[in-house]
Amino acid sequence: MSSETPTRKRREEVYNGLKTSLELLGNLVKISPVPGLEGTILTVKGIMDIVESAKHNKQACYDIGVKINKLISVVHSELKDRDDIDTDKGTRTRVDTLESSLSDISRRLSDLAQENAFRRAINRVADADIILDLDKEVDECLRNFMLGTQLSTGLDIKYLREEAVRTRVLEDLDTGGWSSDRLCLPGTRKRYINRIWEWIRGSDEPMLCWLNGVAGSGKSSISHELAATLHAKRQPYSCFFFRQDDASLAVSAIKLLAYGLSFVSGLRELIIQAMEQTNDTRINLTMEEQFMALIVTPLQEFASICPFLTVVLVIDGVDECPAEIRPSFLAAIHSGVPRLPSSVKMFFASRPRGDVRGFVEDLKPLEINVAVGVGQDDGDVEQFLQHELLGICKAAGLERTWTASQIKRDAAALSSKACGLFQWAKLASALLTERVRPREVIARILNVDASSTPEVNLDALYTEVLDIALPGATDDKDIGPLFRQVVGTVVVAKQPLTISAIRTLLKAGGVDDGGAIRTVLENLGCVLALHHTRSGAVVVRIGHPSFYDYVTSPQRCPPTWLIDLHQTSVQLGSHCFSLMGRKLKRDICRMRNDICDTLSAHHNGLRYACNHGFTHMNGDSGNLRMLETFLMEKLLEWLEVMSLLKLLDTAAELMQRTLADLQQQNISISHVEILQDAIRFVGRFGSVINKSAIHIYFSALPFTPQETMLYRVYSLRYRDIPRVTLGYAESWPEGLCTVRSLGGNEDTPRRLAFSADSSHLALSTPTHLVMASSLTGVQLRKNRFGSSDGDTDMPIAMACRQGYLVSVTSSLLLRICESRSLKEIQLSLSPSSAEKLSSSNSPEVSCATFDQNVNILFVGYHDGHIQLWRQRHSSWEPDKDVHPRSHPSPVHNIATAANLLASISKRELKIGPYGDSKPGDVLGETLTLTPKCLAEVGDFGNSRLSFAATSATSWACAFSLYFSTSDTHSVYVFTSEDQKGRRILTTSSPTYPVYALSPDTSVVTIVCDELLWRWDTASHSLIEKCPIPGIDRASTRLDRFPVISPDGHLLALCDGEVVDIWDLMQPPPKHPKKGPSIKAAGVILTDDCYIVTTGKQKWLARVRDDGTSEDIVQLGEHKIELLAMSADETKLASLSFYQGKTHRGLLEIAELNSRKRATTTWPVALHDSFTGWDTCYMEFSATGKHIAIVFFLSEMSYVCACDLESGSLRWTQLSGKLEPLAVRSLQGEELIVVRARDLWKIDLRTLVSGRHELHTRDPYRMATCYARFTSIESSSILEMASRLWDKPPWHTIWNADNVAREEAKIRRAAAHLEVHGKNQFGHWVLDNMGQRICCIPEEYCSKWRIKSQSSINHDRLALLKGDGAVVIINLQAMMEHLN
């Protein structure tokens, strides 16, 4: 028996698991009965019992059991997702067939058992063959059942992230699938179709089939026919058809392929799981990552369950994929196809373009060429034309005058013109269909000069078709320009447009068509495709790629119909900016100001203009002038629309590309600055803008640094926004963004690593693994792995990609964060590797790294060997042998790029491939370099290795060394062209150099000693040197070492408790003169703002309008916990404690009209158990004779009343476990305490209290609940507001005198600060009705306590930042706008 034979324990586990699964499946069947299926399950149980009794043939039992387990999983997957399965005739038929087959197997096994021959003969070869035959029969039953199993619906469209794609699904628009009107005519293309089916069914055929041919040869029809046949045969498949005029859909090609696979039973759950893991809207996956996560991984899992099912992926028109997307898509296919299981076949159809051929031929496909030319089409073109002419004849009622023999002759004549080109035949047919006298048109077509070249004949036909569809265009000065504007817009558009959108865009450019645009488009139905959506709109698309080639080529198209791509794109860009200038406005969807999760679709033309206007600029001077106006007037309104469309990431990318273009143009510095500000604006406030677009104006703009161009321009345009009048920022922070909430302190070790595409940052602390966005700093996942004391191993290597983070420690403990969970795997060596690595039991690890795709782990050892682990499915498996490129001394560093591995030891630098090929590089052997500098280094602990490569023949390597004799750091660069290497930098700075090579190996970026260097690796010349102050504060520690992103644009470095991300490509922000700022220990707002000054001696001070303060009254020396102001604003009460929150407190009363120290003091003698309490409120009585202090401790409320005349203190306890929400003194000495369920009225003279029930929602389910006494109509009006998590607020009004509900018109006012510890972008200001009106960024909120360090009054908010700085925010103008 082989080594792979399962153990006895494993067989028993499988058998017991099968019995449990069958019981669960039987219960499921009883809930959703399917005729025959319950009997089938009983039959399967019988088979399992009989086969298991054959103890001597354990392997056969195991094999049959595994196959039956696959059946159970498939049936269970289908049953649990279908409510109407009892009405599905197809399911009943498949189950009946399955039951019949398995019953026959069961009967034969029972017969053997009854004759007592089974047990006696199992050791004989003949009876072993019987078991083998039974195994094959079970296999065939499973195959037949699975081939017929398809789900009626795929996964929910919520998993399709792009809003435009979801809209297409809902509107029944083109989503890249096959179409019934694009199929081959029955009986045609047999030669190609038969060969393709031989390839699908053949077990020895290549995984990839490439169908290629010239444009119009009929490739797409064959692809559509293949997809349709697969669908009809209910064979697992998915497909995607590229269109040249649809770049927006091409971006989602891989996701739509995965969406198609979700219609396959057994794959649906795997696809959903993959979609959930990668559906974070804050990050964009590369196409290579998408293909691995959404296609390869689910299919690998599916193949392990159903290895006998062939899954076919059909991809057509790759050559039509937009040029900016095609390389990424081809790279994804090139890297992903070899990892697909053998049960998957991929069908490709395209023109034989050079870039496509280069990628495809590396995969060694079955290549099928569609031949064209006279006599090369097997008569298919003539057969097609004859069929079409017969249909045209019948539709026109010409059967009497156009006989069958004449039709046959006409078809033969036209076929000779087509020269085997199907598109020529389809175009002629489409033209004839629209004509009243088709035979006259045929005669006109046949009179066109013919050529032996199919493409020339097609061009001539296009010219004739346009002349017929738009007669007189040569003479009419209006028709030609209108054609070029209308069709040109269709041709250059980045996505298909509706007729309405085309009219809107052209009208914005001054084209007043009066209905002519629709007429032109409808007359061109033979070359354009018009698709009617469910909503009634008509989408216009190019009929065939050959028309695009014809109409844009000066060599092929006459001037009347020629479209200049550049000029037309420039004009469309102008139309887009004109439309945005006219239509964009603030709050375009009238959301007011609260969170809006669902958005109504806006005008198609404006959507296109916002999404693609920047891409049509093309450096035109007129468009640049329009852009300048746009940046100064409409930039924020554009960001609002992009947020509504869920395209904020796209907006950031567009602005970055535009900024790079503008820096090459002659444009004013102010416009460059405002665009730079906008990029930082999105990075800083992107989270809150994504939450609600309208908060661009109410939460983002108010907290934009006030000396930036963006704030100076737009704060004048929008005067009703909140204003930070004190404590505002004047410039952007030095870093691009900050990753917060990491825990620890400035001594906590951290390890940082960027993803291969620089879009994510991975971080490790002693207790957590974190992945954050490199653009915004927002944490995307955070998984805990360590103990609270941090006594865990820090990783020696980390890597991440979208939705996936992995690290490894020196003890080879692999930590994997995926799908919101953390998994730990202890890696072990294969026996042969362990034997070769070391004679000791545990060889010591020296270094490690991951490849760019995070699928391979490389580990270097102190004995000089290197070991590889590869991710296969969900496990990491070691190579059977150690890597052949070993060193004679310890491996100090390793790095990978482009399937090459670089490793460095005491004496050697080695570079060679690590793929599945035999060891060796471009010369056939590993390249070994022995730089002299390595021998001069005593300690390699500080060395770092950076490696980049574009191919096996083009690479670069950089590393730094520390020389203790001279106390200097040196950076060396080696390249494939200069293998001797060169030292490019030497520094005596105490900080370590941080460096990275660009992906193309041409530039090395170095940061050290507050300077940035960029060196050319080929010439070793300095490209750039500029100061970057402040970046060296953490680079002296190896356990908090900074990292540069692979593209050289970003730098991540530790700063205390946070990690800052810097943009190295942009100039550092300006630092203007600091504005006024005040630090305080306490704050309270009345008509004025009062603060308690810091320092040992505290003063009560009034804040002036100019940002300065005026001392009024001297207070005590202890920390102020709470402040209160009397109704006449003549007295201020302060509550402080000797040693934090203990029972020894001090209450001081200060006269504001006197500058003498407060002498009226009372010791607040609390019970000894009063420690760790929450001070909730302090309030003067209406007469000013009493002070009431409300505490909340151990889920109990306490009220302390201080008589200011006698100095006596009285206490009372309020029953119930509810925390006080509001406290208010009404007439006399009466105090009202409001809680979530009740209202208490307390006489402060006697502490006699009364409780009144409030009928409110369950307070324990509330995310936020608060109360407020309004001063608009009556002092006894009480408002209560509450919010459930992500639910609309709930607001009630009460009369506090009689505790009865009231109906009153209440003015909206700022009322509450909603603080959540896990909020990633700040805390919300709520109004009295529970609506979120403004978000305070996190840096204004960190480390402050809401009760003692913030105050809201008169639509103003005052708070203390973490450093004690006072911030005052005026919300009055915004509240007037909202009212």
Quick overview:
This is Nephrocystin 3-like N-terminal domain-containing protein. With 1379 residues, this protein is α+β, with helices and mostly antiparallel strands.
Shape: globular
The assembly state of the depicted protein chains is: single chain
Uncertain spans: 1-6, 27-38, 53-58, 77-88, 115-128, 146-154, 593-602, 917-924, 1343-1348
Helix vs. strand class: alpha+beta
Measured by DSSP, the beta-strand proportion falls in 25-35%
Radius of gyration over C-alpha positions, nearest whole angstrom: 38 Å
What proportion of the residues is helical, as a percent range? 25-40%
End-to-end separation: 83 Å
Give average pLDDT, whole number: 77
Keywords: Repeat
Protein name: Nephrocystin 3-like N-terminal domain-containing protein
Domain Nephrocystin 3-like N-terminal: 196-351
Tell me what you see in this structure.
With 1379 residues, this protein is α+β, with helices and mostly antiparallel strands. Helices cover 33% and strands 26% of the residues. The protein has 37 helices and 63 strands. The chain has a 5-stranded parallel sheet, with helices on both faces. A 4-stranded antiparallel sheet has the order 9-63-62-61. It has a 4-stranded antiparallel sheet with strand order 10-37-36-35. β7 and β8 (538-542) form a beta hairpin. α12 (268-277) packs antiparallel against α13, α22 crosses α26 and α25 packs across α26 (604-612). The longest helix has 26 residues, at 89-114. The radius of gyration is 38 Å and the shape is globular. The termini are far apart. Keywords: Repeat. This is Nephrocystin 3-like N-terminal domain-containing protein. Residues 196-351 form the Nephrocystin 3-like N-terminal domain.
